[in-house]
Amino acid sequence: MSLEDASLDIVPGELLAVVGENGAGKSSLMNVLYGLYHPDSGTFRMDGKPVRFKSPRDAIAKGIGMVHQHFMLVPTLTVAENVVLGREPTKRGLLDLDRACDEVAATAKRFGFQLDPRARVDTLTVGSQQKVEIVKALHRGAQVLILDEPTAVLTPQESDELSQVMRGLVAQGRTVVLISHKLKEVLGVADRVAVMRRGRTVAEVRASETTVSELASLMVGEGTKGAALTGVPAVASETPEAAAGPVVLEAKDLRATGDNGRPALQGVSLTVRAGEIVGIAGVDGNGQRELAEVLTGLRKLEGGEGTLLGGPLAGLTPALAKARGVGHVPEDRLARAVVKAMTVEENVALGRHRQPPFARGPWIDFKGRRERTNQLLTAYDVRPPDPAVALQALSGGNQQKVVVARELDAAPKLLVVVQPTRGLDIGAVAQVHERLREARARGAGVVMVSLDLEEVLALSDRVYVLYEGRVTGHFPRKDLDERELGRRMLGAEGSHG
Amino acid sequence: MFEVLHSLLFSTLDAAPALVFAALGAMLSERAGVVSVGVEGMMRTGAFFAAVAALVMPTPLAVLVGMGAGAGIAAVHGFLSIRWRSDQVVSGMALNLVAMAGGTFLLESLYGPNGTPAITQLSRWNLPGLSHVPLLGALSGHAAPTYLALTLPFVFHLLLTRTPLGLRLRAVGDKPHAVATLGLSVPALRWGAVLGGGLMAGLGGAVLSTAVLDRFEQHTPAGLGFMALAAMVFGRWTPLGAFAAALFFAFGNALRIGLASSAPWLLDLVPQGFLLALPYLLTLLVLALQGQRGHAPAALGTPYEQESR
Amino acid sequence: MGERTRQVLPSVLSVLLALAVCWLTIAFTRDADTATRAYLQMLWGGIGNWPAFLEGGSSNAVLRPLGEAAMKAALLTLTGLSVAVAFKVGLFNIGAQGQMIWGALAAALVGAHVSLPGLIHVPLALIAAAIAGAAWASIAGVLKLKRGVHEVISTIMLNWVAVSLVDNWLVIGPLRAVAEGASSITGTAEILPTAQLPRLLGDSSRLNLGFPLALVAALGVWVWLSRTRSGYETRAVGLSPEAARAAGIPTLWRAGGAMALAGALAGLAGAVLVLGTEGRYPGSLGAPYGFDGIAIALIGNNHPLGAALSAAVFGILRAGGTRMQLLGVHKSFPELIQGFALLFVAGRMVWLALLDRRQKRAQTQAQGPAQAGAEVPRV
């Protein structure tokens, strides 16, 4: 992530959106603006005067506040403690928590938020935590509020609510900078849009004078058709109805506990057939991750039953799942899919390292491993095509290509993918989507969990919606409707499913 | 009976301060997220320099020198683990080894194998009203560190739970990035905690050579630093918990030594080795029962890395 | 600068810097001449006084010091491997000391109280020691894997438990050797001759089978880690436990196994000490070889062969330490060098930053001045 020659004019009292692909430098620019990163060269001017932010302290003093994509809250502290941290009210040198609670409650109320200042942050929902973040900035008197991908974890309805909050702040004369890659959403709320590409600002346009497809082509650059690559309707229409094959997964009433010890799956039933892509939609944290983990043997099934590729779902382990033909592209690539300090070829072997061509008896088969890796690197166009380089030297997109190559090379009968394109640039996204379609064409059943509704809509033959560990909706392709999905993601039951 | 209890309490209160100070120091550093296995080395350094200083200056001043020496070791730890984001356990163990061998080398080359010459011990204070009250009388007749050790844990408790600084320290140990985005300096807070921890560990060491003994001995502190770590863990990284655990361990030690002289037959039934092992076994047991994750600061041992651009 | 150089160079520089710093320490407390002569004595004490030997001295002048160095190197190699193996699976084994204590005790008991022909007795005593060490380490392993107890804390505690139970109870109580005649004996009973590790260079040198044993162990660990499936799995678990689990690797078994192997290696160190030189479990183990293992492993960059190499270096220095006493420098002085070396290795990041800066400067000089900065953007 880097910036070169990025410029931005921020006009008071407007809602400016900064759009760009992942890795285009949006977050970097904002972190520079907020004093967290330091530019090699360049200047800021505020109200005509040059300013220099050595740390966020300076930015805060100048009235800039930021809500980070990954919340910057201390989970063990209360809402009030989080908000006042760094500017704590005191009485005779001691912390005055009562006053802190009053102040925070007052600030929250002034902007129309409902927050219990005495609640511990780790007991709050994601949506509430985001409100704490916003209150934290406003409490510091932020005139300019930067929001970094704030809707990534929200439902469409929660996003609407956030839009109203942002418009409300602008109406009060504050300035909001919204960073996003969701173009439709941006056009609905912003006054002006700045487009970034490869660390540069390439355009600034009025929201009322542009369209999604114009922004998309600005984002990816000249000569590329934006709409075709952003996963908006054009792609969806390419997807034909799948010819359903034999059932590869039949699950009834699955139950499992989440990491926090609370029930994560509370009776999920689903069916997956060979040769179809089944999308799992839902707001982050409604059991999708746990479902994927149950299907790949990573999480213990505590109730319900199922048949997965001819064997019982209960008692599944990762090794057993692999042996039956389950492929897995997990959500958190660096944590789950690869060992970044190992070489590319060692990562290609990961999970299949006990069988030829990666092993011969108890020994590693160096030659066989090298040959197979070279084949895959060529086939999937991984750069650099060097099997002996450490995986962490590759870009995120190329790392993901290695993971997808490895999983598909094993010719899985059921492929479980979670957020397969998170953090990838548009070119890599298109390639990953193409590979998933290929897997389907080859007859694999694909379960795709994604928080990106556009992705779900673009690829799925059928969609299950999860809410609080239950299926609240089940839509065949022809009945897919974004608003209806959103309603189900918030727990509304319907006649379907 | 009272006689026995009295003398047990008395020796507990005599022996506890070093453990209490070191445990508080380790806790301070760890609550801010910096692992403190180097506390043994800091104690040794503090003990050595306090003893050497006491040869040429009044003992109370020498104790300050010992504190400074502990902080000096802590500064190296801070330099490696905060400034250069080194592995905190490695850095701490390295300092332990350096302090171990360095102490021996300096001691032998300056004073010979029998330890430093004797120094004037810190004077003991008699609390006139208390001396003759049963049991409470054990409170009287200790040197200043004992009384400090009985109050400092409460000061630390107040500091951590009721002051802005304490709030920030807790936050920086749990989620440093959140602290950084509010414009507070993570390194500054951690440096403060590490140096403060070094001062406390140095004080613990200095007490050993100026109040418990009257010189620096070859093996000082003989694992007391590690016992302080146990007390900190046993006390769930809280000042009062660590205090209670340290007192408990010191009491156990006093009991063992008391038994060895007054009731040797008992030690045939319960071997000394068992009693020696008891603090560590108990700490292990408590950890095994509760698991550790719930109580250690979340970012403990994780170097803070602010992407520079 | 190649990746391998980046791995090795900081360790080498750290040892050299430690040698320099410690030389200065003597030079300041004494004088430069004493410092130099002390270093020479240390060298002769470690690798043998070759000048004297070549001038026609007895071969003992060389054999004895080399034997001492090899003996120390063997112990350091084994405890260093113990720490390094645990590191490979992501665990910090501070507990080699405690594991070594149990290993030494087991070897001493089997060596003294079981009578067998030598060909079986020695292996049996070694195996007993390895099992004892492995069992002790496994306590920490199980606590970590089942209860989430951090291994640094648990192994520190276990060390003290081992010291308390063995040194302060068993070997002075139930297991103490029965006094023969008037002389009271500290430690356990003398091992039988059949259990002694054979000496390789005759009686004048204490070089025994322990040294080749340690080298074989280092080679074995290296081959296992780099060439076998299970070694690969172990490294994967160490580098990313979650990814390893998702890949179907039995992470608990690999982590537990590596910890047990670490304990076994430390236990072997105890056996080599008892069967090779001490002849019994003495009153206490003497030197904290288990803690030294931490330094050896880290200076050796957690590579099995690196650990063997750094053990050889410090084995030589420490064997030479006794000779420094001739000049009034305490025999533990090499431990100070070792401590500083570890401290400097802990600053690996500092070394790498310095090396990178040097390299960058060399490059800019070769290429001429870097291009002027990009144009200044407006904001």
UniProtKB/TrEMBL annotation, chain A:
Residue ranges occupied by any ABC transporter domain in the UniProt entry: 1-223, 249-493
Superkingdom of source: Bacteria
Keyword Transport: yes
UniProt keyword Transport present: yes
Gene Ontology MF annotations: ATP binding; ATP hydrolysis activity
Pfam families xrefs: ABC_tran
SUPFAM superfamilies associated with the record: P-loop containing nucleoside triphosphate hydrolases (SSF52540)
Keywords for this protein: ATP-binding, Nucleotide-binding, Repeat, Transport
InterPro entries: AAA+_ATPase, ABC_carbohydrate_import_ATPase, ABC_transporter-like_ATP-bd, ABC_transporter-like_CS, P-loop_NTPase
This protein's name: ABC transporter ATP-binding protein
Organism: Corallococcus carmarthensis
UniProtKB/TrEMBL annotation, chain B:
Entry's localization field: Cell membrane
GO cellular component terms listed in the entry, alphabetical order: plasma membrane
Membrane topology: Multi-pass membrane protein
Transmembrane region(s): 46-76, 88-107, 191-213, 225-249, 269-289
Keyword Transmembrane helix: yes
Keyword set, alphabetical order: Cell membrane, Membrane, Transmembrane, Transmembrane helix
GO molecular function: transmembrane transporter activity
Matches recorded under InterPro entries: ABC_transp_permease
PANTHER family, per the entry: GUANOSINE ABC TRANSPORTER PERMEASE PROTEIN NUPQ (PTHR43370:SF1), SUGAR ABC TRANSPORTER INTEGRAL MEMBRANE PROTEIN-RELATED (PTHR43370)
Protein name in the entry: ABC transporter permease
Organism expressing this protein natively: Corallococcus carmarthensis
Automatic annotation (TrEMBL), chain C:
GO cellular component entries: plasma membrane
Keywords for this protein: Cell membrane, Membrane, Transmembrane, Transmembrane helix
Main location: membrane
CDD domains xref list: TM_PBP1_transp_TpRbsC_like (cd06580)
Membrane topology of the entry: Multi-pass membrane protein
Pfam families: BPD_transp_2 (PF02653)
The protein, known as: ABC transporter permease
